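Q: Joint fold for the lines below.
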Amino acid sequence: MRTILWILFPALILIATACDDGKTQNSSQGDGRNIGAKLRQEKILVDDATLIGDRPRLLKGFYEANQALKKDFDIDFRVVTVQNEKDLDRFANRTFQQLQKESRSRSGKALLLVIDPVKDQVRLEVSQALEPVYTDAFVSYLERKGMVPYFRDGKVIDGIWMMLELIRDRAFEAKAGKEFVEPMPSRSIGAGARTEAKLGQKDPDAKAGPQVHAESTQTPAQIMRKYMQVLKSHNKNPDLEIYSKATREFFRHWTVTEINQNNEVKFLGPCLDRQKTIYTPDRAHAVNLVLPLDENRKCSPYFFVKEEGKWRLDIASMAQSLRFNQTMDWHFDLAKRLEGEGIYYAQAFDGYTFDHNGYPFRPDAKDRKPDDARWGFKCKGWYRPGDPTKMARCWIAGVWRGSPAEVRMGLEPYDYIYAVGEGADQKKNASWKDFTDYMAAVPSGEIATVVVERYRKGEQYPYRVIRRGIAP
Amino acid sequence: MDEKIDVGYDWESRERKKKRPYGLVALLMVLLLIGGTFLWSYNSIVTLSEQVHSAQSQIESNVQRKADLLPNLVKTVKAYARHEEKVFKEVARLRAEAVPGAHGAGIGKTAALDGQLNGTIVRLFAVAENYPDLKASEEFLQLQSQIEGAENRINITRMHYNDAVRAYNASIRRIPGRWIAEMMGWKPAQYFEVETSAKRPLKLEI
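A: Joint structure:
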């Protein structure tokens, strides 16, 4: 008997360990569950009509925005798609009551968006607690002007996301104005609005509008005023002469809604008269901005490029590098700030540094570059194994805040200089002297290019990044 | 037969007395049960009756909401279709009939008022069909959405009201509810029936 136990006991331990390993493997597989499944499981997005599909980036954005709406305002926003429902209003009310049996809101604030692609209808059902904030007329306006334009372009998830953003904007106003009512059970007595979805039905007037010309004598400030008129008149023509070529191409594929244009008028209006134009030395680029930047965060900069002798708005570059937070404060996307034409516009921000989210601010005097420094970087030496003594290389130990090295070129601490110049003139394995001589010699207004190596945490081998900037 | 020892007691009568308390208790329990049932039924019917009244007031409120939108709708349509005098006279006549309003009117009168409002609104929207600028105007679209909203609320609250009426009417038809209703003079509640002419849903799609 004792012998049997001595054999069985280790075997049982081994079996238990194997089971544990299995569990660990299963839970790690669970962590890789995609965002679409998460939305379905939490019944935030019930896509019975398989209308929305699987677009991970957009679904992730929608999920995060949905969670933020719940966290900041306790609003439970859900989306259901259905096929060929006879009475969409009753279906929406019934589905609302069912889903709200397990409401995610503690105060009865809930919204349900129902889309029927077969009947081509969309309805937003509003809970009793939100009726004073999302009136029927307002919901109808959001649907028609904010969401349906995206549906017409076949961009369903984009339209739903835009609707969520508009709901959030209104919630923000309601919270500030104390319009939310006391908590109550989550139920709906039929509030909301229904609209034709017009899915995939191109709007013949979506890109309509009269031509607006740019004259060669007009300044960027004058072009801005023309642009303001374009926004106010809801002119959605993408081929306006006041737009750069890249911007026209951008607007041909971008869905512009009247609500977007109205919002831009709302924020641009107070800033227009206070804008100052900063030109690049070659007078081929310009930036209109309101100074000081850190005290005027709601006045975003506007970029201009000179084409065919005329100043034109470069909204394509702006869309690439500028972002807005929930309160419409602008900031840079630091990863995109110096891409494309961005290296030319960067000069307008000399003297400003950026936090890790891309918000500009003026550095303290002690952090600003000395007047006798051209670029404003600090080098320290390093050697590759086997390098001769005179072959000291430069790694960037620091950059002065707001200096051209930071603002124009994007040099960062722990950039290891690998090469300088580009094309046939590129010098690889650049030494300290090569680098400093190069940076001193680049003529003002010309593009300086360096290739740096950076190390990711825990990795043995570096990756290379090209840094380019207009020399001061 | 057992011999009884005479110790001065009347055994037979003592044994008879021992049986009586059980009968009394049982009777009391039955009476309590019946009384409790009646009390519970009474309270139940009162609760159901209150639910009917609450649902009715919601309907009246939504019908009044729809009635309150009518002047704005008339004004908006008139701005574009001033010469449609015949129509506006008809609308004024219909509005005059609807003057008493919905609050406290009773469900029958509320249903009739709703029907009249529907007739007026349909008439105005028919006029709007001939004026594309009116149909596309933001003011008209917003009024349209408000009227549709009121109509939808009426539909939903009507469902809730009819459910409440069904439960109440069933409770005063069952036993002992029917006896309680007869004693208290409670009558069955009226359903909110949609008028035959207005049985089609109010389609406001332009």
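Q: Anything notable?
A: Chain B has one domain: 11-198. Chain B touches chain A at residues 58, 138, 141-146, 148-150, 152-157, 160, 201, 205 (CB under 8 Å).
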